[in-house]
Amino acid sequence: MATVEEVRESLRAFQTNYLGNTRLQEMNRGWDRVIRIEVEDHPDVFTLILENGELRLEEQSGRKPHMVVRGDSEIVTGVFFGELAPTEPYLKGELTVSGSQEDVLRLDFISLMIWGA
């Protein structure tokens, strides 16, 4: 089990790498979304907020999410650190992503642009 701090660090790493990619920021300038991250083995809830191409991390945000990403701490941490491709745990049901198909595909594309293949 990953600690809450490790989960937080993985989300910060994702945020930092996103913000370091000006092409991604420009591509997502009109795609404002609230993405709730639920970690099954911790009570903490994290929220990634994408507005005007910028991405920020909030904890315990009360904003209504467009998408919800849910998994245990090991899966969530691995995916957001880029150590684990989301496809396999998603297909096994270990990682769930709720939202419109377009939003899920966009988040997958963002991850691919940040972490590579």
Write structural notes for this entry.
It contains 5 helices and 5 strands. Helix 1 packs parallel to helix 3 (73-81). A hairpin with a 2-residue loop joins strand 2 and strand 3 (54-59). The protein has a single domain (4-115), classed as Nonspecific Lipid-transfer Protein, Chain A (2-Layer Sandwich). Strands 3-2-1-4-5 form a 5-stranded mixed β-sheet. The chain has helices at 4-19, 22-27, 73-81, 87-91, 101-115; strands at 33-39, 45-51, 54-59, 67-71, 95-98. The model has no long low-confidence stretch (mean pLDDT 92). It has 117 residues and is α+β, with helices and mostly antiparallel strands.
CA(first)-CA(last) distance: 25 Å
CATH topology: Nonspecific Lipid-transfer Protein, Chain A
Structural class: alpha+beta
Q: If you compute it from the alpha carbons, what radius of gyration comes out, rounded to the nearest whole angstrom?
A: 13 Å
Order of helices and strands: HHEEEEHHEH
Per CATH, the superfamily is SCP2 sterol-binding domain
Shape: globular
- At the first level of CATH, what is the class? Alpha Beta
How many domains is the backbone divided into? 1
Number of helices: 5
Mean pLDDT over the full residue set:
92
Strand order, biggest sheet? 3-2-1-4-5
CATH architecture tag:
2-Layer Sandwich
Low-confidence stretches: none
Strand share of the residues? 15-25%
- Major sheet characteristics: 5 strands, mixed
Oligomer: single chain
In short:
This protein is an alpha+beta fold and 117 residues long. Helices cover 44% and strands 25% of the residues.
